[in-house]
Specification:
Elements lengths: L4 E2 L13 E5 L3 H12 L3 E6 L6 H6 L3 E4 H7 L2 E4 L3 H12 L8 E4 L3 H4 L10 E7 L3 H9 L6 E7 L5 H11 L2 H4 L1 E3 L2 H11 L1
Parallel strand pairs: 2-3, 2-5, 3-4, 5-6, 6-7, 8-9
Antiparallel strand pairs: 1-9, 7-8
């Protein structure tokens, strides 16, 4: 059977209006996520360590930076874009206290959920949008009016809207222009590890 490919018409970006999206980390994917979402008209906050050298770059891009703790508290959707090895620690110290019912925790790779390095409370949505390109290309293609394909998955659907939220996020990033495929955290993690 052919897998269904989701496009702009399958994703309602309106679901994200009035919500704050916290991007944790400002590396190559963090930059692309934050700038694309901002250019799609969404409210973005970038969570960084207080001594992060990226703060100036965030400001130059017209974005707002705050600490990881404050960003997690103020955001409805929290996207983890720091290296996999650091995520468990940062989540436990700075993000877990802010994970109240109704929030969404997102990833661009399934590793930490699949291997239970992060175990979010049952009351939050947990999903993934994993673009299949390096950050700079994701940004460039978005700026050119096209997008990069992505995978998305839902690990936990507390709100009943986790899928729609993940698709709306993928649209804000420009991924539904190219097409997104649904997968699982396990499958994405394992194929990604084998791929690397």
């Amino acid at each position: 059977i052919m897998a269904k490919v989701y496009h702009d018409s399958d994703a309602d970006q309106g679901l994200l209006q009035g919500k704050t999206i916290g991007i944790i980390g400002y590396g190559s994917q963090g930059k692309a996520h934050a700038q694309n979402l901002k250019d799609s008209g969404l409210k973005v906050l970038v969570g960084l360590r207080s001594d992060s050298p990226s703060r100036q770059e965030v400001a130059q891009a017209g974005l707002t930076a705050d600490t990881v703790e404050a960003t997690a508290k103020k955001s409805d959707i929290i996207m983890m874009l720091i290296p996999d090895v650091a995520q468990g620690d940062v989540y436990a110290k700075s993000i877990a206290p802010a994970m109240v019912a109704g929030k969404t925790l997102m990833f661009a790779h399934g590793f930490n959920i699949h291997y239970q390095q992060i175990v979010p409370p049952r009351t939050v949505d947990v999903s993934m949008v994993a673009p299949k390109s390096p950050g700079p290309l994701v940004r460039r293609l978005y700026s050119e009016g096209v997008g990069t394909p992505a995978l998305f998955a839902v690990h936990q659907d507390a709100s009943g809207k986790a899928r729609q939220t993940a698709l709306a996020y993928a649209r804000g990033r420009g991924c539904t222009r190219a097409g997104v495929l649904e997968t699982t955290f396990a499958e994405e993690t394992e194929t990604d590890l084998f791929g690397e």
